[in-house]
Amino acid sequence: MALREEGVVPALECRGLSKAYGAGRIVLARLDFTLEPGEFVAIMGDSGVGKSTLLNLIAGLDSADSGEVIIDGSVVSRLDDNAATRLRRQKLGFVFQAFHVLPHLTLAQNVALPLLLNELPTAGALDVLAAVGLSGRGDDFPRQLSGGELQRVAIARALVHRPKLILADEPTGNLDPDTAHDVLGLFRAQSKATGAATIMVTHSEAAAAVADRILILSDGGLHASSARTTFSDSHADSRSIARSADDAR
Ligand SMILES: Nc1ncnc2c1ncn2[C@@H]1O[C@H](COP(=O)(O)OP(=O)(O)OP(=O)(O)O)[C@@H](O)[C@H]1O
Ligand SMILES: [Mg+2]
């Protein structure tokens, strides 16, 4: 086990997280997990095993039956509603499995939303859209986009405010291999450029290979995978995302 650097607060800790739906449908059972700043972890596991449930608990979209979620040193359950909302708004970027792009806003407005909510300048939104391959599409509306393009808008929106913790639920599920490779490079580059920690849920072994660690969710807990990670940073367009993220400040 790696020794933690003195004084470095984990980006995320899950302590004893349990969740059941109804009687007997145990999804998570006293799950423990620590994610260091800058670390990129892939979570794999069979459909229905609880991967989205775990991300939803971390993001506060669903509540655990017991256990704690600690984000950047703050025990979320000990915060009042306003403070918990503020913490998530500032520190979390979430790419939902079903995108949740807002239909009545343009792409630029969708991506700028986290900046607006955090009272940050919105000028960088178009650069982050460009970084996911949607240059010049800022005035389009979501209905004009393909599934893979919508997925990339959702990814741009999750990265634009340089969150400390990025949660991505099957972010390459609708992308062709080349676009998926570019998007994975962006996640990795963002994590190196800003120190963000990333959890990516995926069914794709090729996508998981980008991560520093691969964990398998089964029987309510996370287990180390023997699969190797092979991604080379030379593939990541790190300058582009670093520049975009800087411009977004
Ligand atoms: N709101 C809910 N009410 C009842 N059961 C639920 C609810 N949400 C999820 N479940 C159940 O919890 C289990 C885990 O679901 P979850 O969506 O977390 O799976 P997953 O690992 O993300 O699957 P997939 O790979 O298909 O996305 C499933 O059996 C699902 O039916
Ligand atoms: Mg899921």
Automatic annotation (TrEMBL):
Region ranges (Disordered): 227-249
Claim: Iron-sulfur is one of the keywords in the record: no
Superkingdom in the source lineage: Bacteria
The keyword Heme is assigned to this record: no
Ranges annotated as biased composition (Basic and acidic residues): 234-249
InterPro entries xref list: AAA+_ATPase (IPR003593), ABC_transporter-like_ATP-bd (IPR003439), ABC_transporter-like_CS (IPR017871), ABC_transpr_LolD-like (IPR015854), MacB-like_ATP-bd (IPR017911), P-loop_NTPase (IPR027417)
Keywords associated with the record: ATP-binding, Cell inner membrane, Cell membrane, Membrane, Nucleotide-binding, Transport
Pfam families: ABC_tran (PF00005)
CDD domains (UniProt xref): ABC_MJ0796_LolCDE_FtsE
Residues in ABC transporter domain copies: 12-244
GO molecular function per UniProt: ATP binding
Name used for this protein in its record: ATP-binding cassette domain-containing protein
Species annotation: Paraburkholderia solitsugae
